[in-house]
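In this supplementary section we document a worked example of the pipeline. Step one takes a protein sequence of length 236 as its only input; no multiple sequence alignment statistics are reported here. Step two produces a three-dimensional model, which step three serialises into structure tokens for compact storage. The input and output of this example are shown verbatim.
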Amino acid sequence: MSSEEDGRLSRGAAVRVQQFLIRVDSISIWVGKAMAWLIIALMTLVCIEVFKRYIMNMPTAWIFDATNMLYGTLFMLAGAYALAQNAHVRGDFLYSSLRPRIQAVLDLILYVLFFLPGVAALIYAGYDYAALSWRIGEHSTVTAEGPPIYYFKSVIPIAGGLVMLQGLAEIARCIVCLGTGEWPARHKDVEEIDVVGEQLAHSEHIDAQTREAAIGRAQDIDRAARQRARGGDIET
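The serialised model returned by step three reads:
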């Protein structure tokens, strides 16, 4: 096989890997955005309960359980989204100054030693936990007629599966980086700085020069705060 054919095969493999990474990122982002709507439901529920409790003097017994389940569902199912956006908290005061290949080695070791066993245990235990809850028709015991919680417990293995899928994509990113010396692109979602820039761009209360300068300064601050020496992003 000629070197040209080898090159074509390598480029084809790289394209397939990148497509896999972006596809997994897209799934995590879609689920994260869908779960974000639970904030609206949670806020609505709390506002209604505050009105009923303090204005009508008619508190609802199951509100505490419902708000816990809504927030817990959002928190768990958004985990893969946070991993896809590289948004989980980490102590990166040294990490960000390292070369990409060294970063990839560290990430790969931590994923294999801690992430994979931990998330696998979460999926395994969460499945048993949810299955038992379904078998006994478990309801909350906080109140006399608590709501069913087997739906909520089913979220545990589902969330673990989504995080595991995104984690495998991150491991693939580490392997690609070890070979190329650069982090592969990830599917980029809209960030707060993008919203700020859009608001400034449509503001009628400042002139164009001041607006552009403010947007530039905001972007510089955001880049400095997020400096991780990672590869480029793909805009959604």
